[in-house]
Structure formats: structure tokens, C-alpha cells
Amino acid sequence: MRRSRPRVLTSLLGVALFATFGAEAESWILPGLANSGGRNGARFESTVFVLNCGTSEAEVTFGLVPGGPLAPSPVVRRIKSGETLLIPNALRELFGLEETLGTLTVASTAPLVLGGATRNVADASGTYGVGLEAVRAGDEISAGKTSHAIWLSHTGTEGPGSRANVTVTLLDPGTSALLEIRDGSGSLAGSLPLDATTPVTWQGSVADLTGGTAVDAGYASLKVSSGRAVGYVSVVDNATGDGLLSPFHTVPAGETDLILDGVARADGANGTRWTTGLRLFNGGGSPALVSIDALGVSPSPEKWRVERTVAPSSVVAIEDILAEFGTSDGSAGALRVRSSGSVLAMAATTTPDPAGGPGRFGVTQSAVLHRGGMAGAGRNVTLAGVALAARFRTNLAFLADATGARASATLRDVSGGLLGTATVELGSSEWTQKSLSEWFGVAEAPEGSRIDITVTSGSLDAYAPVVDNGTGDASVRRPAPLPASCDGAVSGPGGSPTTTLTIGAAAGAPAGRIRPLLGVNIGPIPAGESTVDLTSPYHQAGVTTIRTHDYYGPLDMATLYPNQNADPANPASYNFTASDAVFEKILAGSFEPCLRLGDSYSAQPGFPPANPRRPIKTDNWVRAAVEVVRHYDDAARWKGRPLRYVEVWNEPDNGRFWDGTVEEFASLFIKAARALKEAFPHLLIGGPGYSPFATVAPQGQAQVRTLIAAMKREGVSLDYFSFHIYSNDPEVYRTSARFLRNELDANGFSAVPLAITEWNTETRNLSRSEALALRTGGRGAAIVSAVQVVLQEEGIVASHLYRGPDPSPSAPEFYGIFYSDGRPKRSALALELWKRLADHPERLALSSARASGPALYAIAGRDLSGEVSVLVANPSQEAGSVRLLLSDGSPISCVRVDEISDSSAEITTRTIAGEMVSIGGATTLLLTYRP
Fold first, then answer.
1. 641: nearest Cα among 699, 583, 591, 708
2. Distance in angstroms (rounded) separating the CA atoms of residues 906 and 903
3. How far apart (Å, rounded) are the C-alpha atoms in residues 191 and 118?
4. Residue 295 pairs with which residues in a beta bridge?
5. For 186-239, how does the pLDDT look when each residue is reduced to its tens digit (9 = 90+)?
């Protein structure tokens, strides 16, 4: 290893990064521009496109953070509403610069979409290039942050293989950063301090940084100590001159849940052969088990999940990811990457030179958040900078989430003129790709055209590879949000607010992500007297996981393994028929199962009861539990909805579920947890689903302490510790969670998270009419929403409401969040609002100042587009008003209000001008705005 000597960048003339406009101005940064020659005869030029997606003409100021000694003067252009400004060779056209590189800064008086591509144009017959990712001002790498570019491969500057360059833009005067190059195992290969007295763009070769040492499947880290920076690694094929661009990204805090769209293992046009490689980077301090699921891959693969363990500060490289799933030739689709650790993922789809040369070309794909990165119902996005012309063609691909999706798509030229329309209808996790001519029935779309997409139901991701007709190389266009409309906004309430909510910056770890918390018990099959399948209602409510409890026979251990004297190793000892039908229905609905090992409250006719409730042959029961999990783990993998959560038992402190001693249960639980974790290290094993008695009563708390002490004594840990609460007071959930958290922490289990696998409102001591009003009305929905806020605040990792359907039309006051005929109660609508909030997964700091009126529960989140949603729950009967403020003083011009209350059986929506909103008693609001 050779450490490069420190280097201080030359002081440059001052650069005004962004012009000063009013509060509606937008500012962006676009790294990666070039107008210069390269090695082996390459010639790089950058094309930039700017779409004015506002309602008025935009004054756009272009600046440059240069790679040379002088910064050019800013340049102003005016762009009409709905028009796209296309700037070929932008450094020459805007600034008259030759043989240089730099980072573009753009400030606009109206909302805009910014992007571009840098291409090797040395051969007039075809280009090789990369798409450029714009960075919104405020999303740069700031002081105290470290970001990583995880696709770095440097075999040398000459001969077959690739060379890598690193580009870093120091955006502020006095910015300082440390650049490090590391191999795949995390070993340091070279480093360089970077600093400058004025903004500057620096570029250096990995060869210089490492002293010529090759780095295969490594990464670069950029640690900013002061100021702000952006940057990327470019891996350039020595033969073709094509680059793979890897921007610096910060590892998100908490769990990983990412989408990589457009993976392939297939032949393409003109003799190409496309293969997708994958890189996984673990930014945490302990090994991360990463699950990679195939989504929409067609033809269907042999298996739907691949797992890899990634060591801390290391990269795992998989050269042909779809081959790992056992796919056949001609396969394409998407991937979902999940881990309980903090992981970055990036893919590259490449092909050998079809002319038989030694080089490759292709395109990288940055991962997007599964929640917050996909566009949901009511959202409008655009893919700008597409073309169907002599030089370039464009493909358009869509991926639906588990609920499927519908959307309309409109193709427009640079002036905003209509070229064609298309309707998009996708099934669960369906992926499809077609050319622009196939989608829109057009023969031509000029370079710089755009595709506007309106999502009408479900959620989807979209991307558009723009392909050079001469070489087959592509650069990818990603969707950008279009501004929300304030048409039809009405005035908010006057006077002083009873509560002021001030929204700040992103919340720190571990509270930095809003968890979905969208599970239920039972379903989607009909239950009891109901004959309604709840798949579609569950999708509408946002349900993602189903706990397999209280089917009253199916999926109970008494049914699955009815004779505990039978040999657990003999397949004839099991009866899976009825249980498989229920489980397959869960998978068919695209729900993730949480497999509960135990028995229901009772057994319906035709199914054996659990009598006694405790196992009579403990060792056999444990071995049988392993085989049951094996059966459903395999089933889940083959059906494409992999199993993750397994819960051992249900309410061992409740005589209806356990009739042995506390010590006997501890022994069973520890044996089962140990056996299951040894057999299935990739699954999350937890339990035991304690009843509310365990956290609120001294006798129950003693039982919890007995189990935790036994776990500590036997050296057995869990992946999660589960409990149940039924209460109308959200603070009971908080105190219960804190009791369990304290007990676990005190015994060395601080890494074991909490899950609440049953919960709902409480109707004991209420009349039937009062129970009906609670379970079906606005107060019940507000309590559910308030509890979800508390669960998020207390770090609960999984949540399952009890339960999905009512068992009978004569019992609408029952626990179901849906009536027996499938209609949603207001508590199901509350789940739907939480889904909409969870689609804004970056949790924001939120401070509340209550002047008078009701005590409110509130939480705020932001999605990748910058849209912010604030959930506000008022469980009391007292009305009030809410004022939203931004901590930076920016104004809020209008707010979309989604409301659940007793005034309507559906979610109602209105738009309020300004920042004041009224909130009635027993009401839940979701307030959404775009800064």
C-alpha cells in the first residue's frame, strides 16, 4: 500500500454558486461535465437538458465550479413553462470553454428538472457515455458526513481492462475532505486530503492515488470535515472508452430496503449480450446479511431469493446476479435488496463489444428506496431527456410494487407539444419494458423530449435507457417529480393555532427512517361467516405482512403436527394440506408472511384442538417446528415472497395459550429459538408474543424477567422480542415498550429490537353501542394513528394489528379493521394514511408547541423528491387547529389535507392555502406539501 502525499488545491477566483432568488427558487448541482480529450483517442462532451416544470417562465442561472484556474461568469437563460432547454456540449455552448471539466450549478425562479449525459464522441458513427445525476442543493455531502462510491475497478491505464478516475467538487470556500481508496475487503490502498480556498472541481486517477496498484471491486470514501462536496468515480473501459459512473452516496441509517430496476441476462439488439453485475457495500460496524429478491423477473427463475453476508466496510461483488437465481437466457426484471444493517447497492448492466473487440460497455444503476423512491397514487413524475431519432432511441420500463399499478403516460417534445399517450397497467411486482414506438405508436421523438407519468393506483418505478443507435451503449433517465398543483385551494382557519408544528432537518439515527408498520393478523382468506377475499382491500390499506395467527386450525401446530409421538423426521407425521392453502393465498396476494409457531385461541370444526396447550413431547415439538419452518421457508422462496419473520408461541402468560409453568415455557422457548436459528440463520427468529398482562401487571412482569434471565443464562438471543397491547391510551404502548426495552438492555440484549404482533383498541367495560362507535368510528382511527406514532418513536421494528376481518356480519364491533363484507372501517383507513406517510420514509425532526386545545400526536417524513407529509392524530373529542412551520423560515403556499373523521366513511381530501389547518375531535390528518 502506498499513501499519496497531501495535496492542497490551487486557490481560484471566487465563484457564485447560486444566484439569489425568492423563496420559490430552486438550486441544483450537476457534476460530471466535460469538454476534453481523454486517453486512447477519446473525446468527451456533455449534453445538458433543463425542463421548466413550473407554471411561469423561468429565469435560469448557470454557473460552473471549474476544473481549471478560472471560473467563468454565470450565464442566464429563460425557459418557457413546459419547455425543455437542450444544451449540446454545454461547457462550450454556455461558457465557451475547451479542454476542461467541471460541475454545473443551476438556480431557477421556477421548479425544474435537470440532467444530462457525458459521452465519448471520438467516433462519429456512435458514442459511448454515462448519464449524469443532479443533486438538489441541500443534499450534498456536508461537514461531518462520509459517503462512498462503491463501483470501483482499476486494472490499469493500458491494455485490456479498465481505469478509474475520481472527481470531487468542493462547493464552498474552505471545504476540506479526505479521499480514500480501498479494496473490496476495506484495506486502504491510497488516500489524499483535498482542500481549497474557493470552490473547485478536482479529478485524479486511481493509479496515482494507489501508486499504480490495481484495485478490483473496491470503493472510494469521501470524508468531509468542513464545507460541502459532491463527486463520483468513473470506471472507463480501456478499449471502448465507455464509462460506468458511481456517485458518492451516504449509507442510510437503519434497515436497508432498496430497489434496483432493470437487471438483465439476455441478448440485445445488434449482437449485444447484456449481463448485470451487483455490488453490495456494508457501511455498518458488524456483518450484514443481505437478502436479494427477484422482482418481476421473466421467465421465472428457479429461486426467488439470494443471500450474501457482507463484512463491515467491505464490498461483495456478484458478476452475474440473475445467474444466482437460476434464470434462463432472456431474463430481465428488477431486484429488491434488504438487510437489517446499513447497506449500499449498485448494479451495472454491460455487454462485450459485439464487434469482437476486447472491451465492454454498459450502464450503472443506482438503487432507490423501496418506499419513497417509487411513485404512488396521485403522483406525477417525468423522465426528461429522452429521444427517438437518427442517433438515439429510448426504451421505457416500469416496475409495479406488490399491489400492482396503473398509470397514464404522455410523450412530449422540447416545446411541451403532445406526441403520444399510453396507458400502463401492471400486476403485482410486474416488470415490463418496451420502446417508445411500442408504447406511444410514434416514429420520432426529438432529442430532449420527455415522458410525463401520472400514477392512478398502486406504486411504480420507471426508468428510460437512451441508447446510441451506432454503438448500443445507453445512459439512463430516472423519474423526477412534477410540482403539486394548488388549484382549488381554499382558505384555512383564521386566528391563532392551538398547536404549532415546526418541521426541521432529517432526524438522526436510529430514528432516521419511518418504518412501514403495516402488518395485520389473519387473511386475506375469508374468516368465519365472511366469504370475502380481502386481497384487494388489504392492498388499498397498504398491508404488507400477515401474521399467521387465529385461523382456528390452519397453520396451527396442532394441525400441522397432530401427533407429538410421531417421528418429526418422517414426512408422514405432518398434515400441510389446509395450512398450505392459506399460506399460498398469502403469497399469491404479494404479502409477506410472519409465521407464528403455536396454536389459535380455539379450533374450528374439523381441526384438532391443542389439548393440553403446552407440548407434551417438548423435543419432538421443537424438531417438528424446525421442519414446519423448513416447509414454509422453501414454499415462500419458490413463490417469490420469501419468509423472513418466524415467531415462537403466542401469549405464554395467558392460560388460553399456555397451561404449564413459567419455567417450562422458558425451557421450550429457548430450545426452539436455538434450534430454529441454527437451522435458519437467514430468518428472523423471535417471540414470544406476551399479552398486555406481561408489561402492565407485576405478576406478568415477573414472567418476562424469568424468560429474559433464562435466555441470558443459556446464551440464547433473539432477532426480535414480541409483545401485545390492547388499550385506548397510546401512552400505555409507550410505557410497555420502555419496560421491555429496559429489561432487555439490562441483561445484555440491547441489540434485540421490539415487535408488537397484536394490538388494537379496547372495548372492555363499554356497552355494545360504545364498542361499535369506537371500533368503526373516527376515535378508533385516531387512536390507531396515535399508537403508530408512538410505536415509531419507541423503535418498534414490526407491527401487526389484530385483526383483518370481522368473523361475522353480526359482530361489527369486533376486532376486525374490515367489516365481514370487506368494507374498511375507519381504522383500516388509518392504516392507509400511515402507508402514505411511510412513502415519505426520511423522518424529519418535529417540535410541537401547544398553546391550547387537544394534545396531538404527530410525525413527519420526506420522500426522495422533497415532498413532506405530516401525520397528525387527535384521539380526543376536542377540536383544534394546526400551523405548520419550517425551521428554515421557508413559506408553505398550500397543503393537501387527507382526513379521517366521523363525518365520512372514506378518506376526504382538500387543499388549503397557507399553513393553517383545522382538526376536529376524533380526527386524523395527513398534511402533505412540497417545499
1. 591
2. 9
3. 27
4. 334
5. 999 999 999 989 999 999 999 999 998 999 899 999 999 999 999 999 999 998
3-state SS, 155-199, equals CCCCCCCEEEEEEEEECCCCCEEEEEEECCCCCEEEEEEEECCCC
Q: Report H helices in 561-617.
A: 577-588
Asked if residues 141 and 29 have their Cβ atoms less than 8 Å apart, the reply is no
SS3 state of residue 396: strand
Q: CB-based contacts of 492: which residues, under 8 Å, 6+ apart?
A: 895, 912, 913, 914, 915, 916, 917, 918
Regarding beta strands 519-521 and 754-760, do their DSSP bridges make them parallel or antiparallel, or are they unpaired?
unpaired
Specify the amino acid at residue 301: P
824 Cα distance to chain centroid:
26
The C-alpha cell that represents 652 in the structure block: 405464554
Listed range (15-24, 81-90, 359-368, 614-623) with the worst mean pLDDT: 15-24
In the numeric block, which cell numbers belong to residue 582? Answer: 392459506
**Comparing C-alpha atoms, which of 264, 258, 318 is closest to residue 296?**
264
Using CB atoms within 10 Å of the CB of residue 77, give its burial: 0 to 12 exposed, 13 to 18 middle, 19+ buried. Answer: middle
| Count of positions (residues) in the chain | 931
Q: How far is CA 69 from CA 64, 95, 100, 642, in A?
A: 12, 14, 10, 55
Closest residue by Cα to residue 49 from 560, 623, 478: 478
Among residues 246, 244, 242, 216, the alpha carbon closest in space to that of 153 is found at 216
- What is the Cα–Cα distance from 572 to 872, expressed in whole angstroms? 54
Compute how many other C-beta atoms are within 10 angstroms of the C-beta atom of residue 709. Answer: 13
Give the whole-angstrom CA distance, residue 679 versus residue 681. 6
Entry pTM = 0.87
Q: pLDDT tens for residues 653-702?
A: 999 999 999 999 999 999 999 999 999 998 999 999 999 999 999 999 99
Contact yes or no for 424/440 (Cβ under 8 A): no
